[in-house]
Every structure is written in structure tokens, then in C-alpha cells.
Amino acid sequence: MSMRPHLLVLFLACALLAQAPARKLHPELLVSTTWLADNLKDPDLVLLHVADTFADYRRGHIPGARYLATAKFIDNAGALGSELPPVETLVKTFSELGISERSRVVIYATAWMPNAARAFFTLDYLGRGDRAALLDGGIEQWLAEDRPVTGALPAFAATVFVPKVRPEVRASLEEVKAVVEAPQAACQVLDSRPERRYKAGHLSGANHVYWQETLVDEEHPVFQPVAKLEALLATRGLLPGRKVVTYCEVGLQAAHGYFLCRYLGYEATLFDGSFQAWTAAKLPALSGGEKTAPPPAPPKN
Fold first, then answer.
1. pLDDT for 3-23, tens place per residue?
2. From CA 134, how far away is CA 109, in angstroms rounded?
3. Helix ranges, 112-250 (H)
4. How far apart are CA 205 and CA 212, in angstroms?
């Protein structure tokens, strides 16, 4: 009896995963609501509530959470819509939030989940990703478990945030162009947008994994188990041992893909200008095509 196509792809992906180079998972980058509840009074914990407006924050946030406006770490003023502000601007923002060398930062967002991942990417770019994590399920999961929220403002002192900038996690247009024009065995490209946007136009060679596919439930956005996430990426042609360049429309959904790769132990970089920068430069894009790419052969050790 012949095997169904989707089962065959899954079988091949699992076989390739078994042969792929070993990597280090980073479970510390994702914390549960239970962990957070048990650690809310930790003096080194800095909990960030990411939202577009202060009114959103005042309507209800997890006790002790500090307000981080999206405009403080996403520059929407430029021609490309959403990019990293200057380092000195980010240093001022995170200093005012009281983030020190000792801080363990946990992030959640209310307006849109990728905004939390974008805040993580920003801290990772500044060299603090190893002391930052996302709240699994966000405030939605917190509320679903009937845990408390408040409108009270927490008291905390400002600090001097010292960045250790990691330029390698932010891919430029020229770097991505080089990868697309001359595909490299060491690199692969991840498109984090909805399938309709991917099919309307995408970078040549890009593998597609819509960011919401990585979650158990849209209403309670908890991440899928690690084994399922690994299989999902593998069935779309993304395997460990090869650097992943993530992109989307303007660099927000791509931040979720970036976080996912970091969580699973992939080396990752984010194309900040994303598809908007690509098309603004009048570079070619493909349209149509299948959602699933055949898994590549694992790199040789």
C-alpha cells in the first residue's frame, strides 16, 4: 500500500531530522504562566507589557508589568514602515524601564503576538537575548487561568542599560540579496506571512511557515510542543545546521519566526526591511507555488 504524500513528507522530514547535526535547544526563552506566577516577586524579574497605547496597559496588565510602547522599539517613521530605531534610542528606552545586567526579562503583548517577539529580537540585537523570554500563551493564557490583572503602576528605578550590539542577527537588503541570488548551503530563508501573501509574491527559494501555525490555539497562543515544531519546520524544508534568514511584510511576523528559530536552536537573522524593502528596491519576487518545500539533505559534518 502506497504512503499518502503528506505522510511521506513527514516521514522523510523525521528521517532527515534524525541525521541533522546536534544543536542546543533553548527552553529558557519561553516561560509558562505557572513559572511567572511563582516568580512575580523576584527582584530581578522585569515583566514587560507591550502595547500600542498606555490606555491598553491601564485597562489591565499582569501585576508588576512595566509598559513598553511599540513605538519605543519599532520605528514606523521611515519609508519601510517598521525598523529598529537607533541604538542610542533603544538604550534610553530600556534604561528607563529599569533593565540591568541582572534583569531576567519576560515579555508579552496584547495588541498582536508578533510584537512580543519583536521586543525579544530587539533585546537579542542589543546582546540581552540570553536574559529574555516570551510568556507562553501571553496574557490570553494568563486570563484563561483566572489569574489577576491590575491597572496599578509598579514602582521601579531607572538603570543604565549597557548594550552589546550583535549586528549579525539583523540582515541587510544586500545580504539577503546575496543569499537569494546565489543560494548557499549554509543559509535558508523563512517567510512568516500568511499563505495568501506568500503565494502573491515571495523571495526565490523561501520556505513558508505562517507564524500562527506554530501555536496550539489562536485564542490562547501557546506554542506547539518542541517535537511538533521541529517536524513542522522540517516538512517545510527547514533543518538545523543551516542559518535561517526570516522575513515577512515589514519585519514583525518575521520576528516570531526569528524567535522560533532561536528557541529551537537554529542560528537566525532577521531581514528588518523584509518584503517591503525588497519590492521597494524593485527586486524580483516569485508568485504562486506550493506551500511545502521538499526537505533538503542535511549538511555534512
1. 454 444 444 444 444 445 556
2. 9
3. 113-125, 138-144, 173-181, 195-200, 226-235
4. 21
